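Hi R.,

Here's the chain you asked about this morning:
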Amino acid sequence: MSTGRLRVRISPGATRSQVLHRHENVWKVCVSAPAERGRANRALIKLLASVLDVERRRISIRSGDTSRDKVIEVVGTTAAELEHSLRAAATRE
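And here is the predicted structure, written out as tokens:
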């Protein structure tokens, strides 16, 4: 089964959760949850699951659990599919 990875810079405590844009090789994502007790990480996974149309259990944070910069892994998809879905989500906002 394929596994895609992407780099994300998260901004917690935003007005609303959304995929903003890609800068170089990092996606900028805002979540409304605060950065406390894993809330922002859970909100990020929930947002990505919705945008990518995958189950939450297929998404994991591979590095950066306590950092704004994270590496996300999505089982059952390719890097190209991730890029396509995120670009589509960013243009809708």
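One quick note: Strands lie at 3-11, 18-23, 26-30, 59-63, 69-75.

Cheers,
M.
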